[in-house]
Specification:
By secondary structure, the protein is of the alpha+beta class. 36% of the residues lie in helices and 23% in strands. The protein has a 6-stranded antiparallel beta barrel. A hairpin with an 8-residue loop joins strand 16 and strand 17. It starts with 26 loop residues before the first helix and ends with a strand. 21% of the residues are buried.
């Protein structure tokens, strides 16, 4: 909000007595002091025009859906079984052990399969039949050439020539048959290797072993050998009241507060929404996916989920808004530079003249978020003659700078409570809120709001103050901060 009250102005200190010190009040000295004042003013202008309040700088816009209870589960839990029957020869993993995709978990007895692989590999390497066929076809082709030469001289009968041609064709087919048999043997080798590979049970994904059901020496046919769980990502199962049906869509983001990870700010994405509600409880289910790098978050935790607003502003619009803000900053810089040039023209020309320093006055006082910026220059209400008016340009008015820097209006108001310094105290605060019937809160564990607990975001200040008064009556010390989009 813009203000021009005297209390908010940066009034200069009263000048001291005039001393005979020409170096201090020389043209160079005044220029240096003016440059320092202008640089400080530009810094304040840039910070005020481009930043948000400290507490609400990274606050996320929450949806009107109340916070609901949820459970953090593994992404999937699979009972690993053998594709073939057999006796377990060895189990390579134990309970709670981490495994990687493709790692061998158990091995069945496979001595017969290993022998079949050796036999098939030997058969696949047989090349004698192909060599025999190549020798026969070479000999038969040479006989055919001699027979054709004798037939031209009529020294051989046509019947003998046809017999030789038949033997050539038979040799070609026998060579083709030998090559096809070699291909079949290679396929048989591959089949034997696959049968041997079925005796090894491998992990289908990265995860942890939850439990083992069979041990060495046991016979398995269609029973599970062990149970495997994938913990990255995690799945969050939330139960939402039916009055909020249709307000949650796949792709929405949500913040998650786990019961033993109060200091961590977790975030998930909606991946599925039930289309059929539960009649008894008048609720429907929502499934969210939450990344879990390095498996840091354990599964099986109770949690509270708070849904966030969908991003309604497309990326091009955000880029245009950012470009507009940059243009505003450029206009602020150009206005300040103009003020520097005008103020520098009003400095005395005689460096040897000793005079009293001119008091700082406002070339354009503009309030940004409650902070008033003042620039150094000639006093606007100081009388001047026509010569000064002709030699010095007119000062920049307050209205000009205010037109270049529009006032910012809060988009919403957030009620906060300070988080205790220790984790145990934070848990006590959360328990007190729940006992008082307050369940729509969110603990900030990172970002600009770290160390605070949000108790609601409201579109008007009146609603925020009503919420604050109700919480104060319950014994909680709260305060309200402004939020800017």
């Amino acid at each position: 909000m813009n203000t021009k009250s005297p209390n908010n102005r940066m009034n200069p200190a009263r000048p001291g007595p005039v001393r005979d010190c020409s170096a201090e009040f020389s043209l160079a000295g005044q220029a240096r002091r003016l440059s320092s004042v202008i640089q400080g003013s530009l810094l304040v202008i840039g910070l005020q025009a481009s930043s948000l309040p400290l507490v609400a700088a990274e606050t996320t816009a929450y949806s009107s859906i109340p916070a609901v209870d949820c459970v953090i589960n593994p992404y999937r839990v699979v009972d690993i079984a053998s594709p073939v029957a057999g006796v377990i020869e060895k189990i390579y993993v134990e309970r709670s052990q981490q495994v990687a995709a493709g790692q061998v978990l158990a091995q069945l007895e496979a001595s017969v399969e290993r022998a079949n692989v050796e036999l098939a590999r030997y058969r696949a390497g047989i090349q004698s039949e192909i060599g025999l066929g190549e020798v026969n076809i070479n000999f038969d082709e040479q006989r055919k050439k001699r027979a054709e030469s004798l037939l031209e001289e009529q020294n051989i009968s046509v019947d003998n020539a046809d017999q030789i041609e038949r033997e050539v064709q038979l040799s070609k087919w026998k060579l083709k048959q030998a090559r096809e048999l070699a291909d079949i043997r290679r396929l048989e080798l591959r089949r034997a290797e696959e049968q041997l590979r079925q005796k090894s049970i491998s992990a289908p994904f990265d995860g942890f072993v939850l439990d083992t059901f069979k041990y060495r020496g046991e016979y398995v046919e269609d029973q599970a050998i062990l149970r495997l769980a994938q913990l990255d990502p995690l799945v969050i199962e939330a139960i939402v009241p039916m009055e909020n049906f249709g307000m949650i869509q796949p792709g929405m983001q949500a913040e998650v507060l786990a019961e033993v990870l109060l200091k961590d700010r977790l975030q998930g994405e909606v991946i599925a929404v039930d289309r059929i509600g539960d009649t008894a409880s008048n609720t429907f289910g929502v499934k969210l996916r939450m990344p879990n790098p390095e498996n840091r978050i354990p599964a099986g935790l109770k949690c509270v989920v708070k849904f966030l607003e969908m991003a309604s502003e497309p990326a091009p619009a955000k880029a245009a808004a950012q470009k507009a803000d940059e243009g505003l900053n450029n206009r602020i810089a150009r206005t300040a530079e103009s003020a520097i040039r005008q103020a520098s023209l009003s400095l005395p020309d005689d460096s040897n003249t000793v005079s009293e320093p001119s008091p700082q006055v406002s070339l354009g006082a503009t309030a940004l978020n409650g902070s008033t910026v003042r620039l150094a220059g000639k006093r606007q209400d100081e009388p001047h003659n026509h010569a000064d008016a002709e030699s010095s340009p007119a000062p920049v008015s307050d209205d000009l700078v205010q037109a270049a820097i529009p006032a910012r209006t809060p988009s919403s108001y957030m009620v906060l409570i300070e988080q205790p310094p220790t984790r145990d105290s934070t848990r006590d605060l959360v328990e007190r809120l729940r006992n008082a019937g307050v369940d729509d809160f969110l603990v900030f564990n990172s970002g600009a709001n770290k160390g605070f607990v949000s108790l609601g975001v409201f579109s008007t200040r009146t609603n925020a103050e009503n919420r604050q008064q109700a919480l104060d009556q319950l014994g909680f010390t709260t305060f309200t901060v402004e939020r800017f989009d």
